[in-house]
Write a structure and sequence with these properties.
mainly alpha; 434 Repressor (Amino-terminal Domain); two-stranded antiparallel ribbon; 5 helices
């Protein structure tokens, strides 16, 4: 699953550690989600989207095909 986390973090000036602390997961978890190596659980996806004040669909992009 593709996502816009890296861009959204940059816009906020947040590090991976900052976002991890906000959504209560490890920095490694944020790194893996951000790099597409791990799909987040639905609750985590909601927490990430909420951290940016966005809807899940605005953070995570469905890959078609």
């Amino acid at each position: 699953m593709k996502n816009r986390i890296r861009v959204l973090r940059a816009e906020k000036g947040w590090s991976q550690a900052d976002l991890a602390q906000i959504v209560q997961v490890s920095r490694n978890s944020i790194n893996m989600v951000e790099n597409g190596k791990f799909d987040p659980s639905l609750p985590l996806a909601f927490r990430i989207a909420d951290a940016f004040g966005l809807r899940i669909e605005e953070v995570f992009l469905r890959e078609v095909g």
